[in-house]
């Protein structure tokens, strides 16, 4: 798990049988309403044994969540002080959104730890310039993705709003 991200496994009954879904939402949020596809980070490929951790070998990401995450970042990342400061520092170029689980944020960052990129021009983030990195991993050997406390809190709030606004399942 990552600092700040409340990773939870929700066991549900489906037409195919019992399924363990991974979400960032607390159970109180979806107990009565269910989960919208965007709120499902992924699913476990088999049930976990007692004390076992979720690993990349036992996890399949959920495309609707990944798409939601990138739409969220396209909207929210340019507003962060860190992105604005980096755009101002470089003037023209690219501001990379680096997964904070990476061991080398100031060095060679593995492709799986680059979440996306924004263009900077004249010291400002170019509106609408966010591009997701198709190589980013939601879960790697170092755990689930990390965006930093501020963005993580906003992401969970956005997922809660999306789940509340959908009709109950």
Question: What report would you give on this structure?
Answer:
- The chain has 169 residues and is an alpha+beta fold.
- It has one domain.
- Helices cover 27% and strands 26% of the residues.
- It contains four helices and ten strands, in the order E-E-H-E-E-H-H-E-E-E-E-E-E-H.
- Strands 1-2-3-4 form a four-stranded antiparallel sheet. Strands 5, 6, 7 and 8 form a four-stranded antiparallel sheet that branches. A two-stranded antiparallel ribbon has the order 9-10.
- The longest helix has 17 residues, at 149-165.
- 25% of the residues are buried.
- The model has no long low-confidence stretch (mean pLDDT 92).
Q: Kindly report the average pLDDT value.
A: 92
CA radius of gyration is 17 Å
Q: Element order, helices and strands?
A: EEHEEHHEEEEEEH
Number of separate helices: 4
Residue windows where pLDDT falls under 50 for at least 5 positions: none
Number of domains: 1
General shape: globular
Query: Helicity level, as a percent range?
Result: 25-40%
In which order are the strands of the major sheet placed?
Answer: 1-2-3-4
Percent of sequence in beta strands: 25-35%
Structural class: alpha+beta
Total E-strand runs: 10
The largest sheet is: 4 strands, antiparallel
The end-to-end span amounts to 28 Å
């Amino acid at each position: 798990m990552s600092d700040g991200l409340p990773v939870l496994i929700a066991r549900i009954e489906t037409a195919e049988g019992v399924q363990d879904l991974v979400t960032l939402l607390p159970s109180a949020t979806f107990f009565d309403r269910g989960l919208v596809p965007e709120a499902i980070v992924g699913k476990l490929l088999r049930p976990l044994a007692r004390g076992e951790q979720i690993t990349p070998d036992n996890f399949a990401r959920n495309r609707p969540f990944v798409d939601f995450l990138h739409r969220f970042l396209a909207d929210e990342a340019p507003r962060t002080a860190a992105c604005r400061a980096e755009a101002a520092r470089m003037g023209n170029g690219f501001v990379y959104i680096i997964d904070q689980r990476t061991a080398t944020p100031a060095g060679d960052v593995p492709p799986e730890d680059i979440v996306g990129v924004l263009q900077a021009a004249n010291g400002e983030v170019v509106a609408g310039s966010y591009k997701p990195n198709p190589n980013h991993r939601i879960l790697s050997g170092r755990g689930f993705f990390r965006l930093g406390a501020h963005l993580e809190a906003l992401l969970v709030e956005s997922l809660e709003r999306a789940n509340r606004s959908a009709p109950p399942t």
